[in-house]
Design a protein that fits this description.
The protein is of the alpha/beta class. It contains eleven helices and nine strands. The longest helix is centred in the N-terminal third of the chain and has 20 residues.
Protein backbone atom coordinates (compact mmCIF):
# COMPACT_ATOMS: atom_id res chain seq x y z
CA UNK A 1 0.00 0.00 0.00
CA UNK A 2 1.06 3.60 -0.52
CA UNK A 3 1.51 4.29 3.20
CA UNK A 4 3.83 1.28 3.57
CA UNK A 5 6.00 2.50 0.69
CA UNK A 6 6.18 5.91 2.38
CA UNK A 7 7.21 4.28 5.65
CA UNK A 8 10.02 2.39 3.92
CA UNK A 9 11.21 5.65 2.36
CA UNK A 10 11.14 7.45 5.71
CA UNK A 11 13.26 4.71 7.28
CA UNK A 12 15.83 5.20 4.52
CA UNK A 13 16.21 8.90 5.25
CA UNK A 14 16.72 9.00 9.03
CA UNK A 15 19.63 8.30 11.34
CA UNK A 16 18.15 8.19 14.83
CA UNK A 17 14.74 6.76 15.68
CA UNK A 18 12.96 6.93 19.00
CA UNK A 19 10.18 4.34 19.13
CA UNK A 20 7.18 4.82 21.42
CA UNK A 21 4.92 1.82 22.03
CA UNK A 22 1.58 1.28 23.70
CA UNK A 23 -0.69 -1.66 24.41
CA UNK A 24 -1.55 -2.18 20.74
CA UNK A 25 1.76 -3.83 19.93
CA UNK A 26 1.41 -6.33 22.77
CA UNK A 27 -2.22 -7.26 22.10
CA UNK A 28 -0.84 -8.98 19.00
CA UNK A 29 1.12 -11.19 21.41
CA UNK A 30 -2.04 -12.07 23.33
CA UNK A 31 -1.70 -9.57 26.17
CA UNK A 32 -5.02 -7.76 26.74
CA UNK A 33 -5.36 -4.01 26.63
CA UNK A 34 -6.65 -3.26 30.10
CA UNK A 35 -8.23 0.06 29.05
CA UNK A 36 -10.27 -1.19 26.09
CA UNK A 37 -13.93 -2.29 26.33
CA UNK A 38 -13.90 -5.80 27.73
CA UNK A 39 -10.50 -5.24 29.34
CA UNK A 40 -9.93 -5.89 33.03
CA UNK A 41 -10.56 -2.26 34.02
CA UNK A 42 -14.01 -2.35 32.44
CA UNK A 43 -14.85 -5.38 34.63
CA UNK A 44 -13.26 -4.36 37.93
CA UNK A 45 -11.99 -1.16 39.48
CA UNK A 46 -8.23 -0.65 39.45
CA UNK A 47 -6.52 -0.66 42.83
CA UNK A 48 -5.18 2.80 43.57
CA UNK A 49 -1.72 3.13 45.05
CA UNK A 50 -3.02 4.87 48.18
CA UNK A 51 -5.40 1.96 48.85
CA UNK A 52 -2.64 -0.59 48.21
CA UNK A 53 -0.45 1.13 50.80
CA UNK A 54 -3.22 1.58 53.38
CA UNK A 55 -4.88 -1.82 53.30
CA UNK A 56 -3.50 -5.35 53.65
CA UNK A 57 -6.67 -6.64 51.98
CA UNK A 58 -6.07 -4.41 48.97
CA UNK A 59 -2.50 -5.71 48.78
CA UNK A 60 -3.82 -9.28 48.88
CA UNK A 61 -6.34 -8.47 46.14
CA UNK A 62 -3.52 -7.00 44.06
CA UNK A 63 -1.53 -10.24 44.32
CA UNK A 64 -4.65 -12.30 43.54
CA UNK A 65 -5.05 -10.32 40.33
CA UNK A 66 -1.38 -10.78 39.57
CA UNK A 67 -1.73 -14.56 39.85
CA UNK A 68 -4.84 -14.51 37.66
CA UNK A 69 -3.07 -12.61 34.89
CA UNK A 70 0.37 -14.16 35.21
CA UNK A 71 -0.33 -17.07 32.88
CA UNK A 72 -1.12 -14.68 30.05
CA UNK A 73 2.09 -12.73 30.56
CA UNK A 74 4.20 -15.88 30.92
CA UNK A 75 2.88 -17.34 27.67
CA UNK A 76 3.34 -14.16 25.62
CA UNK A 77 6.18 -14.01 23.09
CA UNK A 78 7.52 -11.06 21.08
CA UNK A 79 5.65 -10.69 17.80
CA UNK A 80 6.76 -9.42 14.42
CA UNK A 81 6.39 -5.82 15.54
CA UNK A 82 8.69 -6.31 18.52
CA UNK A 83 11.19 -8.13 16.33
CA UNK A 84 11.12 -5.34 13.72
CA UNK A 85 11.93 -2.74 16.37
CA UNK A 86 14.76 -4.95 17.67
CA UNK A 87 16.09 -5.18 14.11
CA UNK A 88 16.07 -1.38 13.81
CA UNK A 89 18.15 -1.27 16.97
CA UNK A 90 20.51 -3.93 15.63
CA UNK A 91 21.04 -1.80 12.53
CA UNK A 92 21.98 1.17 14.69
CA UNK A 93 18.88 3.19 13.78
CA UNK A 94 16.71 2.86 16.90
CA UNK A 95 18.40 4.58 19.82
CA UNK A 96 15.70 3.78 22.38
CA UNK A 97 12.23 2.38 22.94
CA UNK A 98 9.88 4.35 25.18
CA UNK A 99 7.07 2.03 26.23
CA UNK A 100 3.88 2.22 28.23
CA UNK A 101 3.86 -1.59 28.36
CA UNK A 102 4.92 -3.61 31.41
CA UNK A 103 5.40 -7.01 29.78
CA UNK A 104 9.14 -7.03 29.04
CA UNK A 105 8.59 -8.14 25.44
CA UNK A 106 10.92 -5.52 23.97
CA UNK A 107 13.79 -6.90 26.04
CA UNK A 108 12.78 -10.46 25.10
CA UNK A 109 12.87 -9.48 21.42
CA UNK A 110 16.51 -8.40 21.65
CA UNK A 111 16.45 -4.70 22.56
CA UNK A 112 19.00 -4.22 25.39
CA UNK A 113 17.34 -3.47 28.71
CA UNK A 114 19.19 -0.18 29.08
CA UNK A 115 17.67 1.04 25.81
CA UNK A 116 14.07 0.30 26.90
CA UNK A 117 12.50 3.13 28.91
CA UNK A 118 9.55 1.73 30.85
CA UNK A 119 7.19 4.55 31.78
CA UNK A 120 4.79 2.33 33.70
CA UNK A 121 7.29 -0.12 35.14
CA UNK A 122 7.59 -3.86 34.63
CA UNK A 123 5.23 -6.65 35.69
CA UNK A 124 7.78 -9.47 35.37
CA UNK A 125 9.38 -8.81 38.76
CA UNK A 126 8.67 -7.04 42.08
CA UNK A 127 10.48 -4.35 44.04
CA UNK A 128 10.57 -2.91 47.54
CA UNK A 129 8.83 0.45 47.66
CA UNK A 130 11.36 1.76 50.20
CA UNK A 131 14.82 0.54 49.17
CA UNK A 132 13.97 -0.52 45.57
CA UNK A 133 15.51 -3.97 46.08
CA UNK A 134 14.44 -6.30 43.26
CA UNK A 135 12.57 -9.57 43.93
CA UNK A 136 11.76 -12.33 41.48
CA UNK A 137 8.14 -13.41 41.42
CA UNK A 138 8.31 -17.19 41.75
CA UNK A 139 8.98 -17.29 45.50
CA UNK A 140 6.55 -14.45 46.21
CA UNK A 141 3.70 -16.09 44.32
CA UNK A 142 4.39 -19.53 45.80
CA UNK A 143 4.21 -18.14 49.35
CA UNK A 144 1.06 -16.17 48.60
CA UNK A 145 -0.66 -19.16 47.01
CA UNK A 146 0.14 -21.24 50.09
CA UNK A 147 -1.41 -18.99 52.75
CA UNK A 148 -1.92 -15.43 51.43
CA UNK A 149 1.48 -14.35 52.78
CA UNK A 150 2.20 -10.77 51.76
CA UNK A 151 5.79 -10.16 50.63
CA UNK A 152 8.01 -8.00 52.84
CA UNK A 153 11.50 -6.81 51.96
CA UNK A 154 14.11 -8.94 53.73
CA UNK A 155 16.55 -6.04 53.54
CA UNK A 156 14.63 -3.10 55.03
CA UNK A 157 11.19 -4.48 55.96
CA UNK A 158 9.39 -2.38 53.33
CA UNK A 159 6.31 -3.29 51.34
CA UNK A 160 7.03 -5.27 48.18
CA UNK A 161 4.92 -4.62 45.07
CA UNK A 162 5.08 -5.63 41.44
CA UNK A 163 7.41 -3.17 39.74
CA UNK A 164 4.61 -1.39 37.92
CA UNK A 165 3.19 2.11 38.31
CA UNK A 166 -0.30 1.97 39.80
CA UNK A 167 -3.12 4.48 39.52
CA UNK A 168 -2.35 7.32 41.89
CA UNK A 169 1.37 6.52 42.01
CA UNK A 170 3.79 9.19 40.82
CA UNK A 171 5.35 8.73 37.41
CA UNK A 172 9.03 7.81 37.77
CA UNK A 173 11.18 10.88 37.26
CA UNK A 174 14.22 9.27 35.65
CA UNK A 175 12.31 7.42 32.87
CA UNK A 176 10.42 10.63 32.10
CA UNK A 177 13.69 12.58 31.94
CA UNK A 178 15.31 10.01 29.67
CA UNK A 179 12.21 9.91 27.45
CA UNK A 180 12.31 13.66 26.97
CA UNK A 181 16.03 13.49 26.21
CA UNK A 182 15.55 10.75 23.59
CA UNK A 183 12.54 12.55 22.11
CA UNK A 184 14.53 15.73 21.56
CA UNK A 185 17.54 13.87 20.10
CA UNK A 186 15.79 11.84 17.38
CA UNK A 187 15.09 12.71 13.77
CA UNK A 188 12.18 10.23 13.59
CA UNK A 189 9.66 9.59 16.34
CA UNK A 190 7.70 6.40 15.64
CA UNK A 191 4.58 6.09 17.80
CA UNK A 192 2.97 2.70 17.50
CA UNK A 193 0.17 0.85 19.24
CA UNK A 194 -0.91 3.78 21.39
CA UNK A 195 -4.09 5.84 21.38
CA UNK A 196 -1.91 8.74 22.62
CA UNK A 197 -4.39 9.89 25.25
CA UNK A 198 -2.51 9.07 28.48
CA UNK A 199 -0.55 12.15 29.56
CA UNK A 200 2.06 13.28 30.28
CA UNK A 201 3.65 10.48 28.26
CA UNK A 202 1.44 11.10 25.23
CA UNK A 203 3.01 14.55 24.90
CA UNK A 204 6.28 13.13 23.58
CA UNK A 205 5.17 12.80 19.91
CA UNK A 206 4.20 16.47 19.75
CA UNK A 207 7.44 17.43 21.49
CA UNK A 208 9.44 15.51 18.88
CA UNK A 209 7.57 17.23 16.07
CA UNK A 210 8.17 20.65 17.61
CA UNK A 211 11.88 19.84 17.85
CA UNK A 212 12.06 19.12 14.12
CA UNK A 213 11.75 15.35 13.98
CA UNK A 214 9.50 13.51 11.56
CA UNK A 215 6.50 11.93 13.26
CA UNK A 216 5.06 8.61 12.10
CA UNK A 217 2.00 7.16 13.84
CA UNK A 218 1.11 3.50 13.34
CA UNK A 219 -2.05 2.43 15.12
CA UNK A 220 -5.13 0.43 14.26
CA UNK A 221 -7.42 3.30 15.29
CA UNK A 222 -7.14 7.07 14.75
CA UNK A 223 -5.42 9.15 17.44
CA UNK A 224 -5.80 12.79 18.46
CA UNK A 225 -2.31 13.50 17.09
CA UNK A 226 -2.86 12.14 13.58
CA UNK A 227 -3.29 15.68 12.27
CA UNK A 228 0.28 16.72 13.09
CA UNK A 229 2.00 13.53 11.89
CA UNK A 230 4.08 13.32 8.71
CA UNK A 231 2.69 9.84 8.07
CA UNK A 232 -0.25 7.98 9.60
CA UNK A 233 -0.93 4.29 9.04
CA UNK A 234 -4.04 2.63 10.41
CA UNK A 235 -3.18 -1.06 10.24
CA UNK A 236 -2.03 -4.05 12.28
CA UNK A 237 1.31 -3.26 13.84
CA UNK A 238 3.32 -6.47 13.52
CA UNK A 239 2.72 -7.09 9.80
CA UNK A 240 3.19 -3.41 8.92
CA UNK A 241 6.44 -2.96 10.83
CA UNK A 242 7.71 -6.30 9.63
CA UNK A 243 7.14 -5.36 6.00
CA UNK A 244 8.58 -1.87 6.44
CA UNK A 245 11.75 -3.18 8.09
CA UNK A 246 11.97 -6.28 5.91
CA UNK A 247 11.80 -9.09 8.49
CA UNK A 248 9.50 -12.09 8.82
Amino acid sequence: MEELEKAVEVLRTVDRITVYTGAGISTESGIPDFRSPGGIWSRMQPIYFQDFMASEEMRRESWRRKIASDGTFAAAQPNRGHRAIAELHRRGLCSSVITQNVDGLHQASGVPGDRVIELHGNATYAACLDCERRFELDAILAAFKADDTLPVCDHCGGIVKTATISFGQSMPLEPMRRSEQETLACDLFLATGSSLVVYPAAGFPALAKQAGAKLVILNREPTDLDGIADLVIHADIGPTLGEAVGID
